[in-house]
Amino acid sequence: MSLEKQNNLSMLNFTTLWFGAAISVAEILAGGLLAPLGFKMGLLAIILGHIVGTSLLVLGGIIGTNERIPALVSTRISFGQYGSYLFSILNVLQLLGWTAVMIISGARSVNQITKLLWSFDHLTIWSLIIGAFIFVWVWLGKDSGWKKVNHIAVILLFLLTMVLSFIIFRNPELFNKQVVGDMTFGSGLELAVVMPLSWLPLISDYTRFAKTKRGGAGGSWLGYFFGSSWMYVIGLGAAIISSDPDPSAMLLAANLGIMALGIIVLATVTTTFLDAYSAGVTFLNLFPKFKEKTVALVMTAIGTGLAIIVNIEQYQDFLYAIGSVFAPLFAILLTDYFLLKNKRIHAELLVNWGTLALCVIGTGLYYQFIKLDFVLGATIPVMLLISILHFITWRVTGKWNYVKKSPLT
After folding, report:
1. Buried b vs exposed e over 281-311: b needs ≥16 C-beta within 10 Å?
2. Three-state secondary structure call for residue 406
3. How far is 349 from 76, CA to CA, in rounded Å?
4. What pLDDT is recorded for position 407?
5. I want to staple 245 with a disulfide (CB 3.0 to 4.6 A). Which of 44, 58, 69, 238 is the partner?
6. Are the C-beta atoms of residues 18 and 196 closer than 8 Å to each other?
7. How far apart are CA 320 and CA 184, in angstroms?
8. Are 325 and 198 in contact (CB under 8 A)?
9. 184-217: string of b/e by CB count within 10 Å (b at 16+)?
10. What is the pLDDT of residue 4?
11. Which whole-number Å values give the CA distances from 201 to 107, 166, 179, 286, 403, in the listed order?
12. So what's the pLDDT on residue 192?
């Protein structure tokens, strides 16, 4: 992305950025997990979950625009410098995980296509090829023509969604086929909320360069909500009709052949770029002397290696792990910033033990709600409870600080 010129990204830039980010094999596969709910209840869970999750995502982005700081740097407001370091480490780990998940998901789909078309069955080679494309995309991220290239990519990806939607909705079995499996509405809602939540530690890395707050927030909401919801619906429909949400099968059925291969690679690259780039930005919160692009390239290489050596297939537990950490974290930060009007980063604050303790409590509560199979999922009740607790106790816990010692003491 062209990030050298400050504050130059428009609403259109953010709409295409987040629409492109949402169109991925991983999001389609996540939508397929909701198939046991059936199409009507699954669709309801997707829409409600994405309204909540995307709205939370955009609130985090507004902080980045107002303060012109990356996402993980903004956590210093509530948790102090060392607290932000802890969350930076966790975020780098989740971004490396996402990079690997995206690459292996895309590689499996592409491999399925080449195996059927040409009997070419080499998953490792496709992982390396997709990783190489992401590497090039990150390298071009500083090029002034990136925004135009991204717009073209999004147009092609939009055509992909149209093709997949046509394949899904022309099938009359979609609305009346007997579904297999067991899932509660709360579980489906949580899987829809947690996907946009996973982008919360990233969004300010981009919205800090927005021309206007309205453009950054509005474009991000529209692009991600419609893109991600659409992908979930496609995955849901494919899983109901054919018990296989992998888009490669649908694209082959549409006789797209080589075009299908290119489309899946493009979808994987445009999304995984954001993971790799933000891993670099987050790493700079720990080691500010490094260059963003250099670190992002290293993260791409590590993520590609993980995709090859680690068997990453089921990532429902991975999504829950992300939610358990970042739901309470951002509940506290958003409460501080928007309700308590605590918007300053205090350079002397190293750790706020009270907010860190609340995060630990929130993580425990998250898994309790997962076990309860609560109708509102886990993210919504946990964020509400932690926000209320923080609002009530901040005058006391706000004093539980570890601060830099003054040179005069």
Report:
1. bbbbbeeeeeebbebbbbbbbbbbbbbbeee
2. coil
3. 8
4. 55
5. 238
6. no
7. 16
8. no
9. bbbbbbbbbbbbbbbbbbbbbbbbbbbeeeebbb
10. 43
11. 26, 34, 35, 15, 25
12. 96
Backbone dihedral angles phi then psi of residue 209, each to the nearest 5 degrees: -105, 15
Q: Which amino acid, 148?
A: K
In angstroms, how far is the first alpha carbon of the chain from the final one?
A: 46
Read off the amino acid at residue 280: G
Residues 45, 37: Cα–Cα separation, whole Å: 9
Interatomic CA distance for residues 144 and 1, integer angstroms: 8
Q: Which residues in the chain land under pLDDT 70?
A: 1-6, 141-151, 244-257, 311-315, 406-409
Between the CA of residue 281 and those of 2, 150, 203, 289, what are the distances in Å?
14, 20, 11, 11
Instruction: Give the pLDDT of residue 50.
Output: 98
> What's the distance, CA 11 to chain centroid?
19
99: part of which helix (H) or strand (E)?
helix 76-118
Tokens of residue 83, six digits: 């607290």
Q: In which residue are the tokens 């106790």 written? A: 393
Q: Which domains does the chain have, with CATH numbers?
A: 11-315 (1.10.4160.10)
Q: What interhelical angle do 76-118 and 258-286 show, nearest 10?
A: 160
